[in-house]
Amino acid sequence: MPLPRPIALTLFLITLALPASAAVRLTTSVNGAVVEVEWAASSFPIRYQADQRLLSALPGGAAMLDRAFGAWSSLDRTRLAFQSMGTGSGLVAGHNGLNTVTLSDDLFANQRAIAVTTNWDVQGKLTESDIQVDATLVNSSYNIEQALVHEVGHLLGLDHSPVLSAVMYPYVSRGNDPVSLDSDDRVAITAMYPEIDRTLLGGTLRGRVTGDGGGIFAAQVVAVNEAGVPVATGLTNRTGDFTLEGVPDGKYRIYAEPLDGPVDPRNLSPFWQQGNITSFRTQFHDGAVLEVTSGRVLGNLVVDASGTSDLNPRWVGVSASGSHDFRLTTTALTVQPGQTASIAVAGDGMTPGVATFEILSPGMRRVSPFRYAGNYVYADFQIAPDAPGGSAIILVKRGNEAAALTGALKIAESKGSGRGRIAGRG
Length: 426
Ligand SMILES: [Zn+2]
Hints:
Blueprint: E1 12-13, E2 27-30, E3 33-36, E4 46-51, H1 52-57, H2 61-73, E5 82-88, E6 100-104, H3 107-111, E7 115-122, E8 125-134, H4 135-138, H5 144-155, H6 183-192, E9 203-211, E10 214-215, E11 220-225, E12 230-235, E13 241-247, E14 250-257, E15 283-284, E16 290-292, E17 297-304, E18 312-320, E19 333-335, E20 340-348, E21 356-359, E22 364-366, E23 371-373, E24 376-383, E25 390-398, E26 401-411
Parallel strand pairs: 1-7, 4-5, 4-6, 6-8, 9-17, 19-26
Antiparallel strand pairs: 2-3, 7-8, 9-10, 9-13, 11-12, 11-14, 14-15, 14-16, 18-20, 20-24, 21-25, 22-24, 23-24, 25-26
Helix pairs in contact: 2-5
Bound molecules: zinc ion (ZN).
Zinc ion binds next to helix 5.
């Protein structure tokens, strides 16, 4: 069972990062207080310049880079804007007043990173950001454009997301599938740089995740809509409190999931590394479906996550129906509407005959019994021709225990359905 090891896109911050809530943001300490870093409104358009050496090594690199910035600035309802300053020669990363994108020869050797973004701020307001791409990435089978979109997310002040399908997920996929921002990325950046009053962008969900020892620090909180899409996520702060802002109107359920892999606190900036990796059971907020309306705050949403569990899915695999030749991976896999696919989930606690899983999408139906091999469980699923496109959640169950793999699957937008692509994607 080959387990490809994705290469981490790591992040290097000059400033010291400290606490926050809501969508995972980079933070800094200003006079002892925690501040989320961001660009001031007066910084836009943010100008960037690419080094000739990078563009020579990367055919089509200039257009690819413009698309990577454009993926963020083309989103509706944000005030993001970028301006390319073209190509320079002999550009180097470093604090020099220019936002540069350059080629590096030693990131991979020194930091095991294939791309890195370095941010500088004054009192939490970003003043400069440099993206470095290692030569290893340019010559690899990894999705280079995805890596660039990811680094631009750091440039804007986003930390990593534990959602597998998010661009801000810390591992890059192989291949060259078109890159589109995930709902989690879009909600996070829109709430950060709103074009309109932030409180009118969507609804706000507030609450607390509690475990055996009180509030749980660095638990992942996920708002799932009726189509089973993990629309918005965030992490709890030190006291176990969470805030999800800018949640689009609709009906939601929320659940809390431990940050125990594939993403754990070590994938995040220093503040989050103080979080406990408590392996509680994935728990849904117990109560009525939440009706989210723009401008409204739904508060006091308590998720009781007491007890522990060793059930921990970490890999996913997709193969042709009837085939059991899974290449398990920790990055999101895409399935096509109309397809029947064999889907595997691997990890800890996949007890044969007991562990099962469901996919929280109304467009996916299981059509075979569960089968078991090694540390994984698999079954065939039929994806409806009109299945709603977007990210999907795999929920593994064992008795009364549950564990989620959030965003492990992406359902491709159905072809020929007459529907356009979702605004702001692509
Ligand atoms: Zn990163």
